[in-house]
Design brief:
Blueprint lengths: L1 E10 L3 E15 L6 E15 L2 E15 L4 E12 L7 E10 L2 E10 L2 E12 L4 E10 L5 E10 L2 E10 L9 E9 L5 H77 L19 E4 L6 H9 L5 H7 L4 E2 L2 E2 L4 E4 L5
Antiparallel strand pairs: 1-2, 1-12, 2-3, 3-4, 4-5, 5-6, 6-7, 7-8, 8-9, 9-10, 10-11, 11-12, 13-16, 14-15
Helix pairs in contact: 2-3
């Protein structure tokens, strides 16, 4: 990436410095560690006024940014290496930063000649990184502490940045500075391109989420269909079991009646019954029969049908008058016609 910038710094009652910057940066990857490295430099053309003296000089800046783990970066910068300024302003900076979503936390250590300081700060970006606002505190090892504030506007390829610093103990002290920089990038994505790329990325992420939701819905529908199938199978099995239970109850009822009939047969000898009774055609059905003591459904069936095996016809017609398989004494039973 190639760019051009203008930077101005003014310090109260001491002087000011105007600098034109021609910058270049690029990115590479460490072969064995597969970690990205961003490196770059500036060619500086500056004019400085300090304590009533004016100087014009050339210089350069150089630095690298290393990405070790996710969202954590370390940088080493050698800046303000100049000649012709009448005073050495060479600065070495070792910086560390950690980004948490849209907020970046930073801690720098700077050395300029015999002047050293720690600087910690926080920066927050807004409106898709169009605006950045930052603040921090500089702790001088052999000077005054100060509060620094700044803001940047990123309208690629144009970038505007403003910084202001004040003494930590009060604004009325004779110290502090402010700076203004204007940069233009000749390469790299423009503001519109970056916004389009961001929008495209968000659309891609939303499409991926939609596909994942569709997949989850499909899996849930499959599970629901499987459940409905298993439910239908279970309901069919329950129906079959209920039918078998009804059949078993009928068999148990028949067995109970047969057992009662056998018990009464032992107590009272059964009257001889002809093997076959010829039913006269003139007989009228149904008939009525008054239950006498000791009679059973089988004995009544033998009396009217000539066989004890047709007792169920009498039972079905007179269920309310039968208790535990025996007709109640004195009840009037309806004898239906025999079935051929």
């Amino acid at each position: 990436m190639v760019g051009f910038g203008y930077d101005r710094v003014k310090q109260s009652n001491l002087g000011s410095m105007d600098t034109f910057l021609f910058s270049y940066s690029n990115q590479t990857t460490i072969k064995y560690f597969q970690l990205p490295i961003l490196y770059g430099g500036n060619l500086r053309l500056g004019a400085m006024t300090y304590e009533g003296n004016s100087h014009i000089g050339l210089g350069f800046d150089a630095g690298v940014i290393l990405s070790s783990i996710e969202n954590y970066k370390t940088s080493i910068v050698l800046s303000r290496i100049t000649t012709g300024m009448g005073k050495s302003m060479a600065t070495i900076t070792i910086g560390n930063s950690y980004r948490y979503f849209d907020t970046t936390f930073a801690l720098d250590f700077r050395v300029t000649g015999g002047y050293s300081e720690f600087f910690w700060g926080i920066e927050r970006k807004f409106f898709d990184d169009i605006l950045r606002i930052r603040t921090g505190k500089g702790v001088n090892l052999d000077g005054r502490d100060y509060l620094a504030m700044g803001a940047g506007l990123n309208f690629n390829p144009v970038i505007i940045d403003i910084i202001i610093s004040y003494p930590w103990k009060g604004f009325n002290q004779n110290a502090g500075n402010y700076g203004f920089s204007l940069s233009y990038k000749f390469t790299g994505p423009s503001y519109k391109e970056r916004m389009y790329d961001d929008a495209s990325q968000k659309v891609k992420e939303l499409n991926e989420k939609a596909e994942n939701l569709k997949k989850e819905i499909s899996e849930l529908e499959t599970e629901s269909l499987k459940y409905q199938t298993e439910k239908g199978i279970l309901e069919s099995e329950v129906t079959i079991l209920n039918q078998k239970m009804i059949e078993l109850r009928e068999k148990a009822k028949e067995a109970e009646i047969e057992l009662i009939d056998i018990e009464y047969s032992k107590k009272k000898p059964a009257k001889p019954v002809e093997e076959k009774i010829t039913i006269k055609k003139e007989e009228k059905w149904p008939k009525l029969h008054k239950v006498e003591n000791g009679e059973t459904l089988r004995s009544i069936s033998s009396k009217y049908y000539g066989t004890p095996d047709m007792w169920k016809l009498i039972y079905d017609e007179n269920q309310s008058k039968i208790f535990k398989g025996l007709p109640k004494e004195g009840e009037i039973l309806v004898i239906p016609p025999p079935k051929k």
